[in-house]
């Protein structure tokens, strides 16, 4: 009888320990970090400025990169911030903004923003691609932003 009683106590303690470990603190921390990464330009650009920039080019074929970079505030940011923006837009981390990434440029600023039209994408690429390799490098991007 005595042995049986001890076993029951042990089982209760084990169950208690399981409860403590069922919600490890690192789990919630990891979710927060992923969320921060997704909120691409928050903390760098002002939300209202980004909204104004997006509203200014909501109609198809109305995108003007000079106006956009100025309105969203990126044009007056530091070289490091501009480089950070480049890395966000370069979604596959290839070191270049290719045409398909350029087409979805606005969606880095707001997930619900429209894709650029083919006409806008080609004009944007032509404006930035000064070495003619068909993609935008980090220096070419910085020149576009500061144009
Ligand atoms: Ca890329
Ligand atoms: Ca280029």
UniProtKB/TrEMBL annotation:
Entry GO terms, CC: cytoplasm
Superkingdom of the organism of origin: Eukaryota
Taxonomic path: Eukaryota, Metazoa, Chordata, Craniata, Vertebrata
Gene3D superfamilies hit by this protein: EF-hand
Ranges of residues in domain EF-hand: 77-112, 116-147
InterPro entries reported in the protein's UniProt record: EF-hand-dom_pair, EF_Hand_1_Ca_BS, EF_hand_dom, Parvalbumin
UniProt-recorded name of the protein: Parvalbumin
Record key words, sorted: Calcium, Metal-binding, Muscle protein, Repeat
Protein role: In muscle, parvalbumin is thought to be involved in relaxation after contraction. It binds two calcium ions.
